[in-house]
């Protein structure tokens, strides 16, 4: 029997709206603590290494559960899955707000992450089921608004709150949204996604956790500890071996937890490759700019957050517009235009100096964000459109997993490039200064050393931006091979991949 994934005659806008709110709050929470970490260190008397676990543990749980989301979305109804995820997220938020010790706070963050990890793949899957191909661009554009604005608001919002209130307020303001979203979903959420009785391969889950978790953790600490640290390369090696084993195992299973055969669809494979390249390059601004404005120029964390806020708002406002343009013109024209803008602005960021005005940085970052907004969602949507409906859960899980891994790799790569360049430049400047530093006082020598460090770091930042410019050029070259996936293409894919008829539970209408 073939599986009939019927697109909804009338998309359930009210239901999708409540899913958007839940996803927005969950994504916002990922970056909400970044600025608050120093305050938490002071209250619980922990060091930088320990406090980093508040973000690392959240990322690791996401890396472990997102690949498994394909199994969860197929095995359980979207109603059951969303209510469970939102309940876990809300419980974790309440526990974090009242956490008496640092270990309880870390545990609370992990509970939060276990709920939020499945929300993005679930929401993307519902969007694909609810809208026909010719309208998906617009729908996914609004979805992109959630993806972009929420993480960008985090640092700015937390900077203001931490300056005026306790860091616990960050969780307090999230709790009402979590409770209201949970209550609404209990009474009004319906089932849209097909459900199948599939078996869970425990070994695949273990290998996936070790593989993706190992890679994410290894790359995330590489920028701090260095590539030569045994724990860094040991974790990455274990992750790579586990992931390779896991991939080969999926090809032998009748019901893989994550279907890697979806990469045989050329536009999906191409979209994932471009998205990975872009995610790596994206971190050149998300990581390097705060270092530049805070460590070198002396701006406050709030000012650093405000620097990126207009860019995030531009991306958010452009997402629905880009979606409509995608429905009309397809992905290629948008991607070429957007990548060209991103390449030019990235090159301009590689020429930073000590005099550039704050307002100029804001405008340049906003223009770069405009370019990025024209690329991510159209490319991702076009790739997912090529997949047969039965592969939607695997496609959304793979997309979100690749973004997590690419983000970790991008962070480690660009930080390493910046540090290596800064170290070599510092040695060069120190040797030049030695010849003219005779007769200087201790204060003058200390000031000279600080100038050398700042100039070397600035040189490293510029070189990392310059490197990211060439990375984005690679994405531009890849877009040459992109073609638009039409409804007719999707029908052909569906006809060539019959599957079992979906089943829904008895609570479909409630």
TrEMBL record:
It comes from the Bacteria. Residues 15-487 form the Major facilitator superfamily (MFS) profile domain. One of its GO terms (molecular function) is transmembrane transporter activity. Pfam families: MFS_1. The chain crosses the membrane at residues 12-33, 53-73, 80-98, 110-129, 141-161, 167-186, 198-219, 231-248, 269-292, 304-322, 356-380, 463-482. InterPro entries: EmrB-like (IPR004638), MFS (IPR011701), MFS_dom (IPR020846), MFS_trans_sf (IPR036259). Its main location: membrane. PROSITE patterns: MFS. Residues 489-510 are annotated as: Disordered. Residues 495-510 have a biased composition (Polar residues). One of its GO terms (cellular component) is plasma membrane. The keyword Transmembrane helix applies. Keywords: Cell membrane, Membrane, Transmembrane, Transmembrane helix, Transport. It is a multi-pass membrane protein. Belongs to the major facilitator superfamily. EmrB family. This is EmrB/QacA subfamily drug resistance transporter. The lineage of its organism: Bacteria, Bacillati, Bacillota, Bacilli, Bacillales.
């Amino acid at each position: 029997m073939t599986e009939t994934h019927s697109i909804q005659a009338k998309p359930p806008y009210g239901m999708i709206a409540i899913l958007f709110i839940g996803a927005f709050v969950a994504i916002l929470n990922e970056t909400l603590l970044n600025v608050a970490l120093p305050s938490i260190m002071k209250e619980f008397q922990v060091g930088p290494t320990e406090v980093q676990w508040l973000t690392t543990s959240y990322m690791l749980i996401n890396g472990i559960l997102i690949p498994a989301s394909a199994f969860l979305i197929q095995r359980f109804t979207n109603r059951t899955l969303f209510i469970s995820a939102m309940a876990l997220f809300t419980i974790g938020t309440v526990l974090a707000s009242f956490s008496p010790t640092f270990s309880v706070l870390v545990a609370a963050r992990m509970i939060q992450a276990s709920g939020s990890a499945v929300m993005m793949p679930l929401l993307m899957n519902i969007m694909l089921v609810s809208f026909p191909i010719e309208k998906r661009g617009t729908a996914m554009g609004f979805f992109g608004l959630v993806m972009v604005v929420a993480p960008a608001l985090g640092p700015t919002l937390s900077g203001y709150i931490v300056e005026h209130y306790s860091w616990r307020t960050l969780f307090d303001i999230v709790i009402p949204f979590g409770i209201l979203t949970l209550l609404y979903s209990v009474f009004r959420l319906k089932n849209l996604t097909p459900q199948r009785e599939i078996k869970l391969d425990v070994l695949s889950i273990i290998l996936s956790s070790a593989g993706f978790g190992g890679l994410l953790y290894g790359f995330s600490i590489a920028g701090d500890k260095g590539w030569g640290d045994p724990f860094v390369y040991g974790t990455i090696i274990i992750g790579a071996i586990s992931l390779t084993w896991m991939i080969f195992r999926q090809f032998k299973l009748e019901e893989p937890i994550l279907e890697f055969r979806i990469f045989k669809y050329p536009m999906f494979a191409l979209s994932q490759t471009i998205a990975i390249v872009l995610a790596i390059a994206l971190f050149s601004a998300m990581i390097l700019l705060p270092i530049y404005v805070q460590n070198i120029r002396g701006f406050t964390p709030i000012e650093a957050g405000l620097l990126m806020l207009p860019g995030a708002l531009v991306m958010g406002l452009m997402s629905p517009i880009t979606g409509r343009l995608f429905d009309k013109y397809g992905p290629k024209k948008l991607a070429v235009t957007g990548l060209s803008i991103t390449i030019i602005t990235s090159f301009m960021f590689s020429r930073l100096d000590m005099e550039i005005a704050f307002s100029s940085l804001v405008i340049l970052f906003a223009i770069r964000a405009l370019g990025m907004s024209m690329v991510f969602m159209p490319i991702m949507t076009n790739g997912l459109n090529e997949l047969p409906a039965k592969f939607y859960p695997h496609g959304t899980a793979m997309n979100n997993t690749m973004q997590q891994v690419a983000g970790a790799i991008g962070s480690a790569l660009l930080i390493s490039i910046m540090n290596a360049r800064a170290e070599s430049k510092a040695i060069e400047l120190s040797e030049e200064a030695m010849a003219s530093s005779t007769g200087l006082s201790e204060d003058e020598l200390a000031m000279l050393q600080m100038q050398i460090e700042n100039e070397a770091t600035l040189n490293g930042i510029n070189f990392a931006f310059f490197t990211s410019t060439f990375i984005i050029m690679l994405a531009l070259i890849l877009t040459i091979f992109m073609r638009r996936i039409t409804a007719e293409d999707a029908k052909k894919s569906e006809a060539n991949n019959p599957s079992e008829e979906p089943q829904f539970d008895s609570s479909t209408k409630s």
